[in-house]
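**Discrete fold encoding**
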Amino acid sequence: MKYARLTKEQFEELHQEFINFLATQSITADEWEGIKKNKPEAAEQELDVFSDLVWYGVLSKVEYLEHISPNHIHLFKCKEKDMHLIALKLKVDHIDLTTKAGFQWLRDNLLSDSIEFFNAKKDYTDDKYLDIFKLIQQGANITKGELFQYFEKLIRQ
């Protein structure tokens, strides 16, 4: 398995897609029950293959990622050949950016000396989607990129 197995809840959400996946392999519902009962390792492999297919479909559509921690914000734009990073680091310890009050403080103090901005570009390794997946595993969320675009405009000025 290249990525990670879907959770039970994710499998439940994708129940119909999993049925379709089995059907593409000519596995009926009765045959699937038999595989689960008599060949659990084969069933596990099917779950892993389906999980990787789902993850690949998701990762291939990712354009933006955000990772917000108490005193850092990492915003990623996933381009074809590389990833662009905009990062903010607080120089103060009493603010928590993961809270509503902390985010409001950021808005009110955006251009103060209490915040450092970083801008970087990084090429992907051999596997773009695995690079994106690792960021998600580390806590990044897939977004529409509004925050990235806001800070990108701010940095350009």
Notes: The beta strands are 64-69, 72-78, 82-90, 115-123, 141-143. The chain has two domains: 8-59, 64-156.
